[in-house]
Every structure is written in C-alpha cells, then in structure tokens.
Amino acid sequence: MSESTTTEHADGDDLYTASQWQLMARKFAKHRLAVWSGLTVIALYMSALFCDFLSPYGLEDQHIDYIYAPPQRLHWIGPDGVHLVPFVYGIKGMRHPETLRKVYAEDRTQVYPLRFFARGTPYRFLGLFETDRHFIGVDRGGTLFLLGTDSLGRDLLTRILYGARISLTVGLIGVALSFVFGLSIGAVSGYYGGWIDNLIQRLIEILRSFPSIPLWMALSAALPSTWSPLQIYFGITVVLSFLGWTGLARVVRGKILALREEDYATAAVLMGASKRRIMGRHLLPGFTSHIVVSLTLALPGMILGETSLSFLGLGLRSPITSWGVLLQEAQNVQAVAMQPWLLTPAVFVVVAVLAFNFVGDGLRDAADPYGR
Q1: Is the domain of 133 the same as that of 169?
Q2: What's this model's pTM, rounded to 2 decimal places?
Q3: Which of 70, 154, 256, 357 is the most buried (most CB within 10 A)?
C-alpha cells in the first residue's frame, strides 16, 4: 500500500472520530475567502485594541494650519535618488487665485522620513502605563496625514482607528444581548409550546412588522439628551439588540421543535431531568454551530445599524468617535465634492461588513462538515 493511500485511509478514519468542532475547523480552513476574511476581522479588532499606539497622532490633536488637508503620499524616490525608508514631503497652504479656497501643495524642499516607534502625543497604553511612542510618525515640524484631515485639522486616520474601537464593540455587545434574548426566548417558545409559543411568536411578528430604521430612530430619540456619552453608548447597544434577537429566536425555536422528540431527549425526560437541564445540556448543544453562524451574520447588521443612526445624528454623538460619527461630515454634498477623503470611514465600514459576511458564509458551510 502506497504512502498516499495510507494517508487518505487515515484521514477517512479520522473523519468519523473527530469532534464536531474539529470537523468545522477543517472545512472552514478549506474556504480560502472565509479564512482571509477572518484574518481581516482579526486585524480590524487588533487595530481597534491598539489604536492609540497605531495612530500617528492623538485623538483630539488639531492642526489649525492644515484644515481639510488632502492625504499625503508616501514616496520612495526623491531628488537625491531611491530611499530605503519611505518619506513624505512637507505641505504648504495657499489661496486659489480664482476660487479663493485654500489648497495645499507639496513642498519638495522639505523631506520627512517615516519614523517607526516615533515620539508623539502621550497616552496610556491599554490603560496600563504612560508612553508617547507611536507606531509611525515623522520628525518635529513635519506632518503625516495619510488619509487627510477634517474640518478641525484632525488626522482622519487617527480618528478612524479610534472610531473602530466604538463601532466594532457596539456590534459585539449588541450581538451578545441578542444572543441572550434570542437563545432563552426561542428555547422557551420551542420547548413549552402551547399558549406560551403563540404569545412569543405573535410578539416577534409585531416587532418584525415595524420598519427597522424608523423604529431605531424613535428609540434613539427617546434617549435623554442629558445622558453622558458612555450612557448613550450603552443605550445604542440596547436599541440595536432590541430587534436583533427575533431572527435568532425563530431559528432556536425551529431547532428545539425538531430535537425535543429525539430519543436522547426522551431518555432525559424518563431519567427525571428538569426541563431547564434538558434545554441547556441536551437540546441547545445539538445545534451550537448554527448559533455561531447566526451570530456571525448578525454582526454586520449591528455595525450598519450604529453607523446609520450616528450618520443621521440619532446615535452616538461627539465627543464619542465612531465611523458613523465621522461620516456626519460627509452629509454635505459640497464638502464631499471638495474633500472626497471624508468618505474614507465608509470604506472601512464596507470592508468590515463584507469580511463578517464572508466569515459567516464559511462558517455556514463548515456547519455541515459531511457536505461537499
């Protein structure tokens, strides 16, 4: 017997002895797009976690002389030849002779090499210790606006990285609350049945009959204007999860209805197990993979919900920084026409949503490990 045949035989035997999670991991690893999307999601959350270190400036640093400055390009080739380290030219502002609008141009007499672990605005790294080291920066006197600046001269890349911390965690907290509501309510509805099931299903139908955006707007508008930004942050997560649990509850109900008549569930009843133990230890673990898939696919909806509410001015508000708050400056068509880089946060929203969707598709395929 050849070595390849022996390997295939071993893999085939291992296929039927592997656990459900091992089978899912093997199937997911074969989905290249989902794997790369998963790495993208990890990169987004890591950048949000270490945003103060990765950002070239502090969150509230203002450069009054560089309001609406365009993105600066990194250069490798200068007047004196090829540089081993990329650099940026200095920028200078001037008035356009016809429109009188302030425009910026590169000052090729000033060269600022890109510095790694450069000194900048002090901050507390992960809240543990004080430091002024940033991942990238330039020498004093230069500027590094890789994505341009906003109406107050603040670096847009820095604000996008800080905004990721809020926008991505809103989705996690909202999905966690939806998970608790959907799992518990759906399990009760499917297992007990009768009038309890009818009552819960009618409630779900009523909630799902409301248009999502107007209902979110109404609930967000109900938040007191005197609340602190932190209170508003948690209020928005509750608003987003208020409707997010209904879809998961129906999925859980359908699975419970299918599994409660299985032999192992009947055996648990005959052994005297309580209903809570039967649901928690026997029925719910039977479709854990499907729950994970549903949660993964729900995250993009939460992120889009926060972005939409904040963009409309009914969600998070300044001084909190999120992708939706950053996009508020893009409401003015004239501003977008003159400063198109203000739409850059939308690119990060699209990338995050697509990455989560691709990961969810990969997990959905992996949830059926024996399928092809």
Answers
A1: no
A2: 0.80
A3: 256
- pLDDT, one tens digit per residue, over 214-225 is 777 777 777 777
Of 108, 128, 154, which residue sits at a domain end?
154
Angle between helix axes 20-29 and 344-366 (nearest 10 degrees) is 130
pLDDT tens column, 145-203: 999 898 888 999 999 999 998 888 887 887 888 888 888 888 888 878 788 888 988 88
CATH assignment at residue 184: 1.10.3720.10
Report the alpha-carbon distance of residue 253 to residue 191 in Å, rounded: 8
Q: From the CA atom positions of the chain, what is the Rg in Å?
A: 26
In tens, the pLDDT along 206-250 reads 888 877 777 777 777 777 777 777 777 777 777 777 777 888 888
> Is residue 37 in a domain?
no
User: Is the bond preceding 300 in cis, omega lying within 30 degrees of 0?
Assistant: no
